[in-house]
Amino acid sequence: MKTLFQRLASSGRAGALALAASLSFAAPAAHAAYPDHPIRWIVPFPAGGAMDNIARTLGEEMSRTLGQAVVVENRPGAGGNIGAELVARAPADGYTLIIVANGMAVNPALYSRLNYDPVRDFAPVSLLAVVPNVLVANKARRKESTVKDVVAHARAAPGKYTYASAGNGTSIHLAGELFTSMAGVDMLHVPYKGSGPAMTDLLGGQVDYMFDSITSARPHIESGKLTAIAVTTSKRSSALPNVPTVAEAGLPGYELSPWFAAFVPAKTPQTAIDTLNRAMLEALRKPAVQQRLALIGAEPIGSSPAGLREHLAKETDQWGALIRQRGIRAD
Q1: Can you tell me the distance from the alpha carbon of 291 to that of 284, in angstroms, rounded to the nearest whole number?
Q2: What is the CATH number of the domain that holds 217?
Q3: Where are the alpha helices (DSSP H) in the chain?
Q4: Coil, helix or strand for 317?
Q5: Residue 310 phi, psi (nearest 5)
Q6: Residues 45 and 112 in one domain
Q7: What's CA 107's distance to the chain center, in Å?
Q8: One domain for residues 102 and 164
């Protein structure tokens, strides 16, 4: 199975940033009027997280390119569904967009009822970045330093060990479900309302492990409180270059790449979508933007709208199958 990075690199579209560099930013003269007023960028989660940071970093650079303000607006709640429904119902004029994560592919299987359809109600713009998750343990409580250690202990004591998550269906949870499924071990999932409370209990010793985002885990790794065991992506993270991937450390074929992408309401004019796509790819190529993203462990990707559509379809199939197999529900 090709990884996210391999699929983007091998596609004939403007998938990876290296391919995107060949694009010309100049929009056709016939559409020079767009945009002629500020653009709203909806973040369906609270301020301060990786998603919010990515939107604000790119939005600031896009404002310069487009000549109009890109205003970030946080609309959190219901696992991102409140913000998604708002954008699905917004005018399809190119002036409202949303940044989403894996939830766009996961939520149709996770929720018994959604007030929007991720395919029918949205038009893809671009993949933006990947922020790897990392399997961590409280260094004072657990002495495991490798994936093989974790698996061996879990097999020796089924149901004894726990892993925390930010809630059912989050990438942190699915990373754990994929791990236990592929390793053939029984570990207890402990969901929290957000990664903050989950991390607090991990640091306090109430839970054993967590597949947390590098964004929030790295400060505790660097302070010596957490042991970084492995990253969930198919290749090592530049933020933690000495930490192996789960696949190379004992579970071949394992991959979970928490991705972020931009969508607009369905039926948005293609000229507006193309203009936004070019502005995003232009921003992602800027060294200053890449440096700011690196601070939160984010690795820029970029794609064409068609590339994002294809990626969403594959992710929906993959994670929908795991969710149904493991009986995961959010409601």
Answers
A1: 10
A2: 3.40.190.10
A3: 4-10, 17-20, 50-66, 81-88, 103-110, 147-156, 171-183, 195-204, 214-222, 270-284, 287-294, 305-326
A4: helix
A5: -65, -40
A6: yes
A7: 13
A8: no
pLDDT at 3: 54
Whose tokens are 């597949």? That residue is: 211
Query: At CB < 8 A and 24+ separation, what contacts does 321-328 make?
Result: 322/174, 322/177, 322/178, 322/181, 323/106, 323/109, 323/110, 323/169, 323/174, 324/109, 325/181, 326/177, 326/181, 328/110, 328/168, 328/169, 328/173, 328/177
User: pLDDT tens across 271-313, in order?
Assistant: 999 999 999 999 999 999 999 999 999 999 999 999 999 999 9
Paired tokens of 131: 């922020």
How many CA within 13 A on the CB side of residue 60? 10
Report how many domains make up the chain: 2
Q: How many residues does the chain have?
A: 331
Using one digit for the tens of pLDDT, what is the confidence trace for 153-189?
Answer: 999 999 999 999 988 888 999 999 999 999 999 999 9
